[in-house]
Amino acid sequence: MHSCARKLLSLPPKSIKMSLLTVGSVAFDAIETPFGKTEKIVGGAGTFISLASSFFTRNQRLVSVVGGDFPKETISYLQSRGIDTTGLQVKDNEKTFFWSGRYHNDMNSRDTLATELNVLEHFDPIIPESYQDTEYLMLGNLTPAVQRLVIERLHKRPKLIAMDTMNFWMDIAMDDLKETLTHVDVLIINDEEARQLSGEYSLLVASRVIRNMGPSILIIKKGEHGALLFHGEQVFFAPALPLESVFDPTGAGDTFAGGFMGYLASTDDVSFDNMKRAVIAGSALASFCVEKFGTERLMEINLKDIERRMAEFVSLTNFDMVPTLH
Ligand code: AMP
């Protein structure tokens, strides 16, 4: 077996050394897809990210905010996955952030039906003292000013800072977003967002423009068409696994980011080669996420399932060829 494949197939032991801090929404979602509809279920970028990374690291912290209506059992469940929730504020007299979306028949695009900010409207990301030694930081999609505040509030800069963002912030807070970008190492966005942020159609050109804005590493997610990783002159492409059923894509991007950062934190290796493995780890987790509504599938799977799926990625992309035609 190829040596890289061998490395991929054995997951790193759950790290207790390197800490990962996730900042992101913990929410209620209501989702409509061509296959069904949910009432309010637990969602949020912070939830998907931290659940995904909990497969790789036990040294994980969460900063977020929920209302008094958020189920205590879910918080206990997150804790049971090794997620430190000291930084999860509970505002007893307020309501949890609520998002609702409806997917089109192609499952690639969706309409937002409702966004009720509630507790997120005046979110002040307080960093507990016990989080100050954080080594890896994942900033989920939030106001760019809040993302920056988190970085400023950490007395020591983490070893690696990654962030997600969305078109919405490009439309209403581009200057703020650009300022935040100067402080991060990794930006994880989708192809449409990369085009809007850079003003370039070619993703290769867009990747250069965006990396000139601050992050030295860029990941462009292309949904069912995989993901691209850029660093310096190096580019890596990971396909998405062809799946029999895509049920609900909500949170797939966050799950990818959580898998990616969880893998990096647990291996404590930020070389390009290890980032490629982290991209596959993130892609494997995202492929589970879409198989059921919300976080349901992520709560069922175990490390063996993930290893099997990573092996599928290896065999899907592995081929022998001597690139000489004469
Ligand atoms: P994704 O499918 O990766 O775009 O992520 C969907 C998750 O993001 C859902 O669970 C929502 O609760 C959450 N979400 C949607 N809009 C926002 C927002 N404006 N701020 C924070 N989280 C959001």
Report the helical percentage: 25-40%
Q: Any idea what the shape is?
A: globular
What value does the average pLDDT take? 93
| Structural class based on helices, strands and sheet pairing | alpha/beta
**N- and C-termini, Cα separation:** 28 Å
Strand content: 15-25%
**Count of strand segments:** 14
For the largest beta-sheet, the strand count, sense and barrel status come to: 9 strands, mixed
Task: Compute the CA-based radius of gyration.
Answer: 19 Å
**Poorly predicted ranges (pLDDT <50, ≥5 residues)?**
1-9
Count the DSSP helices: 11
What is the chain-wise order of helices and strands?
HEEEEHEHEEEEHEHHEHHEEEHHH
Enumerate the strands of the largest sheet in spatial order, edge to edge or round the barrel.
6-5-1-9-10-11-12-13-14
The ligands bound in this entry are: adenosine monophosphate
How would you describe this structure to a colleague?
There is one protein chain. The chain contains eleven helices and 14 strands. The protein is of the alpha/beta class and 326 residues long. Strands 6-5-1-9-10-11-12-13-14 form a nine-stranded mixed sheet, sandwiched between helices. Strands 2, 3, 4, 7 and 8 form a five-stranded mixed sheet that branches. Helix 2 (45-53) runs parallel beside helix 9. The structure holds adenosine monophosphate. Adenosine monophosphate is lined by residues 25, 27, 29, 43-45, 99, 115, 141-142, 250-254.
